[in-house]
Amino acid sequence: xxxxxxxxxxxLRKLESAVQGGLxxxxxxxxxxxxxxxxxxxxxxIATDKLMQDKHxxxxxxxxxxxxxxxxxxxxxxxISKKRDLADAMDVHDELIRNRVIMNFNQSGVTVDHVLAGVxxxxxxxxxxxxxxxxxxxxxxxxxxxxxxxxxxxxxDNKVEIWFSDSYIRNEGYxxxxxxxxxxxxxxxxxxxxxxxxxxxxxMMMTLIKDHEKVHAEKLSLKLDIDTLLIAEA
Amino acid sequence: xxxxxxxxxxxxxxxxxxxxxxxxxxxxxxxxxxxxxIHEVRGKDGVGxxxxxxxxxxxxxxxxxxxxxxxxxxxxxxxxxxxxxxVDFTIEVERALRVLDGAVLVLCSVGGVxxxxxxxxxxxxxxxxxxxxxxxxxxxxxxxPYKVCDQLKxxxxxxxxxxxxxxxxxxxxxxMVDLVTMKAMYFDGNDGETLRIEEIPAHLVDEAxxxxxxxxxxxxxxxxxxxxxxxxxxxxxxxxINEAIRKGTLSxxxxxxxxxxxxxxxxxQPLLDAVLKYxxxxxxxxxxxxxxxxxxxxxxxxxxxxxxxxxxAFKLEDGQYGQLTYIRIYQGILKKGTDLYNVRxxxxxxxxxxxxxxxxxxxxxxxxxxxxxxxxFGIDCASGxxxxxxxxxxxxxxxxxxxxVISLSITPKDKSASDKMAKALNRFTxxxxxxxxxxxxxxxxxxxxxxxxxxxEVYIERMKREYKAEVETGAPRVAxxxxxxxxxxxxxxxxxxxxxxxxxxxxxxxxxxxEVGEDGKDYEFVDMIKGGSIPNEYIPxxxxxxxxAMKKGSLIGAPVxxxxxxxxxxxxxxxxxxxxxxxxxxxxxxxxAYNKAKPVILEPIMKVSVEGPSEFxxxxxxxxxxxxxxxxxxxxxxxxxxxxxxxxxxxxxxxSTVLRxxxxxxAEFTMEFAKYGKVPQGVSxxxxxxxxxxxxxxxx
Lengths: 234, 700
Description:
A: alpha/beta, B: Alpha-Beta Plaits
């Protein structure tokens, strides 16, 4: 297959149609789940899908090392190219990584303003034409009033979409009766799409909690493949 | 000389600039009674410590910069080997690392794991060198050994483990509690030379117990006995803990962390004890050589004195006594008067004067055995050469040397400089195989080439300083390559049968892309001729012809790399075929296929790392972007940001000036060769155009 076909056949199209055509520039999306069941993989898959469409992505992380994140991208890319038998995989790969930048903020207590200033600098000088920003490892429990609105404003001003992850210790019990993850409740207004990933009898099932204006729990026929950690149709 | 090989350590002391390597080395020499007084690092006039330590390092150049210093601690010989601090000349660093069995990684208690610590660690990992860490400067304000220990885990992925608890920190640092013996250690006397052992101060008992638990948990992974004892809640014998730590350290799965302050004379003796206890002796480490008779097959060298000798020359020094060659013996015994074989030069020589180096004197010895580090006098060799018993043909290092990526012309300023320059070049090329020199036949200029702009700059500077040779340099030039991007067939007939002795040969087959692997092999020849359509005697001629053709690609005349040539058919003429005819046919065949195989131009891509204050990150990003660079990532910590990128070497000329002016001199960068990458279309066209114009001009 060539790049274009892969994009067309990607299960992410299904996700997009479930959320009225996608997250969209200026908006914020969050994937919430228990720790260690594949949020990062899902975010990296979303990012890789953008890259496959020749879009530019900045991946912001709060971990210690850039190379860990790079290996996530390498793994996801090689799974996709293997599964779909991508033609000229090496060339596509080289092309893709040019449009991806990883920014790591590894001190504790870094402010949102500081992060956004860094991202802004990158967008202006390093990675022109950024379409999406992935923010992995942001701690919503420590987010101050206005932090998420700052992100939202940034997304709007710069016409990018931002994807976050939100992490919990347990598989159950972190959602309210509407299914909204507790950490996200104070910021719900600024969040356009909220998804959860849940381990259900060995499958990581994806549920849509908020879809732009609509708040309702809707099981999607999407899951995370346990072997490849790719988002796939259930 | 110590007879027992287990009573010997070959270690390196690696550190980030200014984390106190000089001071630490000084203390080690003092406590091992190699020097009799400690020279104060800080001058009386209160000049900044940084400058002082650099001055000292220069003054004491003989001690610290000499390739190996030998000290004795308790009953063990420790060879301290200097590892070059700069990262630009990888080959030299890697050679020094081959010689080490273990290392002490020195870290600043405030700065923690810094950029150079990461580089050094990467190299240690590549050569499987076990290490212990020493958190120096624990007397400084803001000292936090625990934080450094965590950073070792996070940033270097080491299973680090505190072996001590500080008694007081910052200016109140008095000593430390050893978590194995559970005793407090203090350092008395003017220079901390008297170790006083006491009970743990009451206020630290709880903390020490807690830390000991953590330590035992970590090291019990390496000993089932220890784990059993812990489960049963028995007293754990000290020996058992030491054994477990040693096992973990040797397998590189554990990094014990010590702390202290070299400047305040605290914690050095326990560190030396740890070197003895936990770092490997030469027999603990498996060394390998490559058998040149068996296509560089790996052979394990047992540190056995009864086997034939194998040794590696790892450093040459041109001192007041003439040329000294430092060698490490890996197998067998090296005796004065015996014959050795230099594998690279394929030449036998006799071992003359053999010496062991001390900090400022040398001792003549008659023999040295495996594991040891000694020096030879007046041997004609290059650094990296392997010497072995004439019955062997082993090499300690692969014969593969990376190709130079940059070159520039040098012209001596006057006649006397010309002689000095020749002398200097002769010496540098011996020291460093990645530094090369040749005379360009067209311009008649001397060209030097190497692994980076800085690499060449340093040699030009050394020429000036050490040899007083003033030279003028030309603009640096990048070493481009050409390669094919698809396969192509060839079927070429070379025919010249008009009068006189004729020439005839036909060569057919196909050309494919060969991925250049780790070994650097960039050409392969496959003979699939059946039924003698090309007689056996002419097969090597085809091989030769292909290789000749690869010297100059047709795009910009750069060498061609990464080609696999297969011949499967051909034709010959009983009278008119000859070696020459088939070579010419192969050359023609190559060119025919080459143009069909979508040739591309490759350029050296450098791995660049820029470090500077966050406020300038935009400028740093921009400066990389303007250079066709690709930003891989950026990491921010505190107010500092590190940007990693890949940038074509051709765009990096003069980068230091640009970076300095755009960041008020607050950012610095390092770079090393990463790979060869495809030149983008636009640039490629320009290069081809320039090449054609150059040729046109030359043909006029």
